[in-house]
Amino acid sequence: MSGDVPANRPPLSLHVPEPRFRPGDAVDYAHVEVPPAGSARRPEPGDAAASFHELAFGLVRVLDEENRAVGPWAPRLSPDVLRQMLRNMALVRAFDERMFRAQRQGKTSFYMKSTGEEAVSVAAAMAMQRDDMCFPSYRQQGILITRDYSLVEMMNQIYSNRGDKLQGKQLPIMYSAKDYGFFSISGNLATQYPQAVGWAMASAAKGDSRIAATWCGEGSTAEGDFHSALTFATVYRAPVIFNVVNNQWAISSFSGFAGAEATTFAARAVGYGIAGLRIDGNDALAVYAATEWAAERARTNAGPTLIEHFTYRAEGHSTSDDPTAYRSADEATGWPLGDPIRRLRDHLIAIGEWDLERHAAQDLELAEQVKRAQKEAEANGILGHGLHQPLDTLFDGVFEEMPWHLREQQAQMLAEEEASGRPWARK
Amino acid sequence: MTDEMIETAAPAGGETSRMNMIQAINSALDVMMGRDDDVLVMGEDVGYFGGVFRATAGLQQKYGKTRVFDTPITEIGIIGVAIGMGAYGLRPVPEIQFADYIYPALDQLVSEAARLRYRSAGEFTAPITVRSPYGGGIFGGQTHSQSPEGIFTHVSGIKTVIPSTPYDAKGLLIAAIEDNDPVLFLEPKRIYNGPFDGNWDRPAKNWSAHPGGAVPAGYYRIELGKAATVREGGDLTILAYGTMVHVVQAVVEEAGVDAEILDLRTLVPLDIEAIEVSVKKTGRCMIVHEATRTGGFGAELSALVTERCFHHLEAPVERVTGFDTPYPHSLEWAYFPGPVRIGQALKKIMKD
């Protein structure tokens, strides 16, 4: 069906976004505007959001091309803190490498790497207080690692093994760690956004001092939950930090399908009257500085901040994804903002606080640490070798108290196991 | 049908070839887009990439970006926009990447698509077909495994269709696209690549040896609302759909029970006549679905059979379902209504 087009009115046409590069294309990032490090101004954290709208369209950068930390956003961290930041990021990468390989070896069903995005979670977690509450998406394992969560616990969850405190109930990497200020990961997109606002509102209502932070990808900003969250946050000036990790790709859909052709994601804040910062997400110091600023804004009841972390998803969406089918392999290697670990490493070297030998030694040490943790976790079993939880845990936690119908079904299940002659869960 | 008729009747849909369910669905979309310029496909990752399960592979290249396009990640947006396109006069086939992600779209489906014809007295309709992979058995955890059909069968105004073979998938999808009412087309992803007998630790089969894997290349329809008798028998009637049709068949063969197995294919509107005829003949009825038990579609089937066939029943209606828990990750096979659960129910109903 098509409507009749009167001669005096031009026919319409439908715009469907298309990424610049597809497999095999040479990549040219000339269209990506990279302002000089240090050029963005730093307003006071309590300033009115409307007075610094340009920061939602620019790009806050701290590390310059000579690996110096420059400008008003430079957080002036001690070498010890910088080295810790570097170590945390390198540990995340080592962990990802090892667990990706474990999935490929058939030891578990699924894994998601955060390669290239380590700064987004590590530096942010370091800029917050240890008891501030995080509502992450599925790619912020760096928060747990920064907060010294046990690698063995993470792996137990990935393997759904006997040691998994989530009892094998969740898909690998959907961690939950309340004592570490880390909310249970859902897997559904952006659902954590309004929940973070609710937590922050509760904290404010109770006169608490803790704030909340949440993360989602740029693709997820299309979900209704994102917009509901921003509305509540501005209405109640909730003490919350919204992080949009713009890693350019949502599985095979480039950021244009979330609106990036028309504006920035930080600019979403403008319409809601929320502070918006667009930052270089591969610059750990910019991530730290922006988070520290937003945390102070939240803690002084000046309201929420939305931070767009401009970064790049260097690997596939998950172990189920093959990015070579839809994007140019040159995209990752040519990314104009480099690699977050390498950039922080080079900064530490430039200020005389690190060298390549120590870095290589640290990489080896971290790989060993991850390997040791893996061995320990695998002693609790791996998913590939069958089911590890006692069968009756299947019914734990549906309700606080088990109603009659679940008790009946639980008994039925145990009878089935008996009848099967295959005691699945007793390995 | 006589031998002579088989020889002379041109088969609907032309030459057949071996397809898996993904290929059959792709073929249905291709056929319908070729026949009708108003059919369009939209959803997350369905365009250039061709869908995370490849169901829309090649369609954008063939029909262009204004008829096959990626969408923002907003399920309520996808369905709402499809309704608007339907109101214009198009026939959109939106995809929700996993049925587990359909809930943000509930308002548009339940309050809008399902009621548009009714509330406008037919002035506007929503001739959309929402495709969505559903069901477990792939270690997908609670967000890639659910069977939400019972939520939608409870809503007046939406048709719910679930195929169990590549042949049915294509014929039913074509009928769904041609239907002028909104249709939820749930695809059992565990059997995309082959039938599944419920034994997760045995090697996977593909569709090449299954009669339902022979799929005509061209156009054919399987009318909505018609069940298929996949096995005739006299001892009892088993009602199933999707993946469970194959699990039930395998259990029945192994148990040596003379069961009549009906593949419902369409849950709403339901082929009540086929159910009644069969249950009145066998005197026993078992219902098998993977979805949770309480308030599931099995409860509706059980009520209907009891209301309509009570005096013919020799045993209480038996339901075999998933348990009333979220879909677990590692204990997936303890949750799944597999051969043991079905076998035990079979013994019970035959003893009663």
TrEMBL record, chain A:
GO terms assigned for molecular function: branched-chain 2-oxo acid dehydrogenase activity
SUPFAM superfamilies: Thiamin diphosphate-binding fold (THDP-binding)
Enzyme class: oxidoreductase
The enzyme's E.C. designation: 1.2.4.4
2-oxoisovalerate dehydrogenase E1 alpha subunit N-terminal domain mapped to chain residues: 10-44
Domain Dehydrogenase E1 component: 87-382
Domain of life: Bacteria
Residue segments, region Disordered: 1-20
GO-annotated biological processes: branched-chain amino acid catabolic process
Catalytic activity: N(6)-[(R)-lipoyl]-L-lysyl-[protein] + 3-methyl-2-oxobutanoate + H(+) = N(6)-[(R)-S(8)-2-methylpropanoyldihydrolipoyl]-L-lysyl-[protein] + CO2
Role this protein plays: The branched-chain alpha-keto dehydrogenase complex catalyzes the overall conversion of alpha-keto acids to acyl-CoA and CO(2). It contains multiple copies of three enzymatic components: branched-chain alpha-keto acid decarboxylase (E1), lipoamide acyltransferase (E2) and lipoamide dehydrogenase (E3).
Family recorded in the similarity comment: Belongs to the BCKDHA family.
Protein name: 2-oxoisovalerate dehydrogenase subunit alpha
Organism: Sphingomonas spermidinifaciens
